[in-house]
């Protein structure tokens, strides 16, 4: 299997890289705990491979054997092997030893190909695509933010994969802010700050996921700030994600906040119905390739796209469960089966946010009375918040337009539709409205 994998690697990273780095190493076996062990002729080759091709190796290996979690490179006496080309050790800088090498494995499923683009994520997708091309650094950092399960990690991995393929010469490092902190603390403890700094400053593209994690962690922030500056000074691309906008992250030093804002800040909006449907359809299509006999009643995907929350992870989980259940009982997937199998998920999304809750929050936010929000007056001071509330009802609940209309003082469904459309337009033109909606949404979903 290692032979087959080597062949694949050779075509992915190019003949030359392959000869220099991969050919000299030898797969030795898998240790308990899912540690894939490689024999390497020198420490230097080991650290280079781990740093530059570690994620790729890990991803490929874990496709062959799902248990593989980590890689280990050990210097072994490889005399039995034919002589290998080696980089001249004298010219190489003293390599930092292995366990400090950062980087988290990339998920093989998180590619641009599998990312479904819709209104709520098109900007983020376009920006990520651009960075993935690995051309000139035009915005630095790229800051992606949005709620849980909206595709931030997916996009970051997709960028990394893309760079791997198109720019194998670039040294790309992806890790979570938590891992960054962990490495940092470890380096401090082991008095290896020089190694740590050298490592992080030697990357060409740095991606740090979930940066909100380091808020309030002072010395980690400090180190992050220095790393960040050093890389930006060298015109190296940085990509950051967080669950909220830079100015909403509490306990973050101001200089870091402003650094984070200095590039391109894009958010992933909560999914809308169309995007959810698109995602479900693409998952079903993948599934069909494996199980051509899959039977699925029409309308089930639409039902799920309507009923399940904005979080894509939950949506995917529901679909997987449905497939598993259906194949277990050997029945076609009908509406009854769906409701049976997913009753808890559906209940949870039902109970989620009510129209009253939205109305209350919106009235509060705009300092108007609930009765004015729902009532007949058409003055702008009431009409705009009313439209915002309708929009949120459409986005966050599974209620139909006529039903929403009824709950707003018996208005017609076309009035609701018009309101929703209006806010959709305004949202992209009027940043005040966009901010209001974002705030309200977070408050409601909290
Ligand atoms: P986040 O990091 O924002 O919390 P993830 O990137 O982990 O979210 O996404 C959660 C799950 O949803 C992943 O399995 C991801 O593949 C999937 N997902 C999210 N957005 C999309 C999309 N637009 N198209 C396809 N899958 C998506
Ligand atoms: Mg994530």
From TrEMBL:
Instruction: Give a single Pfam family match.
Output: Bac_DnaA
Task: Give the span(s) annotated as Domain I, interacts with DnaA modulators.
Answer: 1-80
Please indicate if the UniProt record lists GTP-binding as a keyword: no
The chain positions of domain AAA+ ATPase read 138-268
What SMART domains does the annotation carry?
AAA, Bac_DnaA_C
Task: Describe the location of the Chromosomal replication initiator DnaA C-terminal domain by residue ranges.
Answer: 354-423
Binding-site residues for ATP, renumbered to this chain: 149, 151-153
Key words, A-Z:
ATP-binding, Cytoplasm, DNA replication, DNA-binding, Lipid-binding, Nucleotide-binding
Q: Which InterPro entries match?
A: AAA+_ATPase, Chromosome_initiator_DnaA, Chromosome_initiator_DnaA-like, Chromosome_initiator_DnaA_CS, DnaA_C, DnaA_dom, DnaA_N_dom, DnaA_N_sf
Anything noted about its domains?
Domain I is involved in oligomerization and binding regulators, domain II is flexibile and of varying length in different bacteria, domain III forms the AAA+ region, while domain IV binds dsDNA.
Subunit info here reads: Oligomerizes as a right-handed, spiral filament on DNA at oriC.
Descriptive protein name: Chromosomal replication initiator protein DnaA
Corresponding gene?
dnaA
């Amino acid at each position: 299997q290692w032979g087959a994998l080597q062949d694949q690697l050779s075509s992915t990273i190019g003949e030359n890289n392959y000869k220099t780095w991969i050919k000299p190493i030898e797969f030795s076996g898998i240790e308990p705990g899912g540690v894939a062990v490689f024999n390497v002729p020198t420490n230097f080759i080991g650290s280079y491979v781990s740093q530059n091709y570690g994620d790729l190796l890990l991803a490929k290996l874990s496709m062959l054997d799902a248990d593989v979690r980590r890689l280990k490179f050990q210097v072994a006496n490889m005399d039995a092997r034919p002589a290998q080309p080696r980089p001249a050790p004298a010219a190489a800088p003293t390599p930092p030893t292995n366990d400090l090498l950062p980087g988290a494995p990339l998920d093989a499923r998180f590619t641009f190909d599998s990312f479904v683009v819709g209104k709520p994520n098109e900007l983020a997708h376009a920006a990520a695509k651009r960075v993935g091309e690995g051309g000139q650094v035009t915005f630095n950092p790229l800051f992606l933010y949005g709620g849980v399960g909206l595709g931030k990690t997916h996009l970051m991995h997709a960028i990394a994969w893309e760079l791997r393929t198109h720019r194998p010469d670039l040294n790309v490092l992806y890790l979570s802010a938590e891992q960054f902190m962990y490495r940092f603390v470890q380096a401090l403890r082991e008095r290896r700050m020089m190694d740590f700094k050298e490592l992080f400053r030697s990357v060409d593209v740095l991606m740090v996921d979930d940066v909100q994690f380091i808020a309030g962690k002072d010395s980690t922030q400090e180190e992050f700030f220095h790393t960040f500056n050093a890389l930006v000074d060298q015109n190296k691309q940085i990509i950051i994600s967080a669950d909220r906008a830079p100015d909403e992250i509490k306990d973050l030093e101001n200089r870091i906040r402003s650094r984070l804002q200095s590039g391109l800040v894009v958010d992933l909006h909560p999914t809308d119905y169309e995007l959810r449907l698109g995602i479900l359809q693409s998952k079903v299509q993948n599934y069909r390739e494996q199980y051509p006999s899959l039977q699925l009643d029409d309308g089930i995907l639409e039902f799920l796209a309507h009923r399940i929350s904005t979080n894509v992870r939950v949506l995917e989980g529901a679909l997987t469960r449905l497939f598993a259940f259906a194949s277990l009982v050997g029945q076609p997937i009908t509406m009854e089966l769906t409701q049976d199998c997913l009753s808890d998920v559906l209940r949870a999304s039902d109970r989620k946010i009510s129209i009253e809750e939205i109305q209350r929050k919106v009235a509060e936010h705009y300092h108007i009375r609930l009765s004015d929000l729902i009532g007949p007056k058409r003055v702008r001071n009431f009409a705009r918040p009313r439209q915002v509330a309708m929009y949120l009802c459409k986005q966050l609940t599974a209620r139909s337009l006529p039903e929403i209309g009824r709950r707003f003082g018996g208005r017609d469904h076309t009035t609701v539709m018009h309101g929703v459309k209006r806010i959709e337009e305004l949202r992209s033109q009027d940043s005040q409205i966009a901010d209001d909606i974002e705030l309200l949404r977070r408050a409601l979903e909290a």
